[in-house]
Amino acid sequence: MNERFTKGFETIKHYVTTEEAVKMIEADALADIAPDLRKMIIEFAYGDIYSRPGLDAKKRALVVITSVVTQGAAPQTKTHIKRGLHAGLTQTEIVEALLQLVPYIGFPLVQNALTIAQQVFKEEA
Amino acid sequence: MNERFTKGFETIKHYVTTEEAVKMIEADALADIAPDLRKMIIEFAYGDIYSRPGLDAKKRALVVITSVVTQGAAPQTKTHIKRGLHAGLTQTEIVEALLQLVPYIGFPLVQNALTIAQQVFKEEA
Amino acid sequence: MNERFTKGFETIKHYVTTEEAVKMIEADALADIAPDLRKMIIEFAYGDIYSRPGLDAKKRALVVITSVVTQGAAPQTKTHIKRGLHAGLTQTEIVEALLQLVPYIGFPLVQNALTIAQQVFKEEA
Amino acid sequence: MNERFTKGFETIKHYVTTEEAVKMIEADALADIAPDLRKMIIEFAYGDIYSRPGLDAKKRALVVITSVVTQGAAPQTKTHIKRGLHAGLTQTEIVEALLQLVPYIGFPLVQNALTIAQQVFKEEA
Amino acid sequence: MNERFTKGFETIKHYVTTEEAVKMIEADALADIAPDLRKMIIEFAYGDIYSRPGLDAKKRALVVITSVVTQGAAPQTKTHIKRGLHAGLTQTEIVEALLQLVPYIGFPLVQNALTIAQQVFKEEA
Amino acid sequence: MNERFTKGFETIKHYVTTEEAVKMIEADALADIAPDLRKMIIEFAYGDIYSRPGLDAKKRALVVITSVVTQGAAPQTKTHIKRGLHAGLTQTEIVEALLQLVPYIGFPLVQNALTIAQQVFKEEA
Question: Best label site of B61, F11, F13, F67, fewest CB within 10 Å?
C-alpha cells in the first residue's frame, strides 16, 4: 500500500463510513476483469484530487453532484448525493443546488435528480 | 416592473456590477427577435431561482460553473467564472473545482475550462 | 392561484386530459422536498412558454419530443410522445419525426425512441 | 446517377436554392479525403429520409433545427435555420421553437441559437 | 433483395452468428410502426459503411464500442461488446479500450461499461 | 521525477515527437494557475493508462480519436488525429474510422471531424 493509496483511503472516509470504505476495497465487483480500476480510483481520484487543499469536502461534493446530474448519470447521482450528506451537506443545500440547475439544464434532468435525492433522504433517515 | 423582476434585478447584483446589470437590461442584444428572453432570465432565473434561500451566492455560482463546464459550453464558462469571482469565490476555489472534475468528465474539458479561467483571471486582475 | 398559474393550467390541457392535469397538481410526488417545482413548471414552462402565440400546440409538442429524444432522456420521451398524441400529432407524424433524426443523432437513439413510441401507441390504443 | 441520388437531389431543393444544391455536389470540400460522404448525404439523408411521406418539409426542418440546437452544434444550427426559412418556416416559428426549448435544455443553449438565428435573419433579409 | 441489402447481410455476419443475422430480419420488433428501419440499418449501416475497405472488422468494432460508451448508451454497449467479441476482439482488448477512456470521459461511464462487459463475458463463456 | 512520470514521458513519445514531448513539459501554458495538471496528465493518463499492455498504440489512438469526436470536442480532435498519425495510423484508417461513426453519431459531427482531419493531413504533408 503506497502513499497515494493511503492518502486516498483516508480522504474517502470524509464521504463514506469506514465500513463502506473497507468494503469498496475488499469487495471490488470488477476485480476479475479490471483489478487495477479500484486502485486507480482510490489513488488518483481520492489520493491525488479529492485530497487537495483549497476547497473543503462539502464544496467538492457539491461540484461532483452537479457534474453527474448535468451528465444525466443516474447511478452516480445516487452515490454522490449519499456521499454529499456524509460530507456534511444538508438536505436543503442539495435540493437548492438541484433547483439552481433548472435554468441551465432544464426541468427534466432536475426532476429525475430530485426523485433520486428523495429516495436517498428516505433511506438515510 | 413587477415584483419578480425587481427581485431578480436585486439578486443579479451579487454576480455582476450594478453597471453591468443595468447594461444587461438596457442593451439587450436579442431585443429585436426575442424581446421577452431577457425578462424571463431576470424574472425566472434570477427572481425565482437564484434568489431562493438555503444556499449562498458563492455555492450557487460554484454549481453553475460546474454545470456549464460539464456541458462544454465555452461562452457560459467565461461568463460564470466572472460572476463567481464577483460573488466572492477565490481563484483557488475555482481552480480546485475545475480539477475536482477531472475524474468525472476527463482532462480535455477541464483543460479547456482552465484556459478560460486563466484568461478571466488576467482580465479581472 | 395567480394569473400565470391559471394560464399554465389552461395551456397544459392541450397536452393532457383535465383529469391528468388536476392529478399533476394534487398528487405532486416531490411535494415533500421541492414543493415549489410543480408550481414553477406550471407557471414558467406552461404559463410563460407553451402558451405563447406564433407556434401551434402540435408543433410545440414536436419540438419537445425531438429535444428529449436527442438528449436520450427515456422517461421524458414517453411522457412527451403521449402529450404529442393528445395535442393532435398522428402516430405517423411521430414515427416520421423520429426517422428524420437518424442522419443527425444516429440509429441507436432513434431505435430506443421508436421502441418507446410503440409502447405508448399500444397503451393509448 | 442512381434513383436514390436523383430523389435526394430533388428533395434537397425544398431546403436550398437549385444553385446551392448544384454547388453542394460540384464543390464538395471533402472530395479529396472522403469522396463518398457527399453521395451518402444526398442518397441516404435526402433520398431515403427527407423524401419520405407523412411529414411535410416545414415540420422536418423544425425537427432538424431542434435536434442540432439541443446538441449545441453551432455550424449546423446556422445551416438548418437557413434551410428552414427556405422550406417555408417563418422567422416567428423559428424563434418560438427556440424559446420552447428553454424548459428542456436551459437558457444558455437557447441564447446561443437565437444569436445565430438573428444573424441568419439579417443575412437573408 | 437489392445489392446493398445483400452486401449488408453478408457484412453483418462478421459481427453476429448467421442465426442471429436471420433473426434480426425475420423477427423485426419494430416492423409494425417502422418497417423500413431494419432495411435502412442493413443497407446503409452494414451495406454502405461497415463493408467499406480500409479498416478491418475488429477495428470497426472497437470504434463503435468506444462511441456508444462515450455516449453513455447502455443497451448499445452490450450489443456492440458482443459483436466485438464475435469480430475477434479479445476480452483484454475490450477491457483495455475501456480503461483507455478514463482520462477522456471519466471513471463513472467507464465503470458502467466495464460492468456491462463483465456480464457479456459471463454470458458468452 | 518519479517512476510514473518517467514511464508516462517514455509512453507519450509514441504519440508525439521527442521535441514536442519536451515542450509539453517545459512550456506548460497553465503552469501559473494549475501547475499540477501537466504532471497528472503525464503520470496518470500516459504513465498509468496509455502505457498498459494488452492494446497497441495505434488502437489506443483510434479509441481516443473516436471518443473525442463523439463528444464533439474540436480542439482535442485535432490533437489526437495528429497523435494517431504519429502512432502509425494511416490517413485511410482515420478517415474510415470517422465514416464508421455516421450511423452512431450522425453526419454533422462526422463532417466536422473530417474537416479537421483534412487540415491535419495538409499540415503534416
Answer: F13
Instruction: Judge if ipTM > 0.90.
Output: yes
Report d(CA D51, CA D31) in Å as an integer.
Answer: 25
C76 close contact with A: CB closer than 8 A: yes
CB–CB of E103 and F59 under 8 A?
Answer: no
Q: For the stretch F32-46, what's the b/e string if a residue is b when 16 or more beta carbons lie within 10 angstroms of its beta carbon?
A: ebbeebbbbbbbbbb
Rounded Cα distance, B43 and B37, in Å? 10
- For residue A84 the three cell numbers come to 454529499
Calpha distance D10→D27 (Å, rounded): 18
Under an 8 A CB cutoff, do C106 and F106 touch?
yes
Task: List pLDDT tens digits, range E27-84.
Answer: 899 999 999 999 999 999 999 999 999 999 999 999 999 999 999 888 899 999 999 9
List Cα–Cα distances, D49 to C92, C94, D33, E48, in angstroms: 14, 14, 25, 16
Question: Closest-CA residue in chain C for E80?
Answer: C108
Please enumerate in sequence order all residues whose Cβ is within 8 A of that of F64, keeping only pairs 6 or more positions apart, or say none: E100, E104, F80, F83, F84
CB D61 within 8 A of CB D87: yes
- The amino acid occupying position C108 is P
- The residue type of E16 is V
Q: Residue F104 corresponds to which cell in the numbers above?
A: 452512431
Closest CA to A70 of D45, F57, C71, C121: C71
Residues in chain F with CB shorter than 8 Å from the CB of B110 are: 37
- Picking from C49, C61, A108, the residue whose alpha carbon sits closest to that of residue B43 is C49
Chains that touch B (3 or more CB pairs under 8 A): A, C, D, E, F
Q: Which class would CATH give F57-124?
A: mainly alpha
Q: Is B117 on the interface with F (CB under 8 A)?
A: yes
Domain boundaries, chain F: 3-50, 57-124
Across residues A8-23, what is the average pLDDT? 95
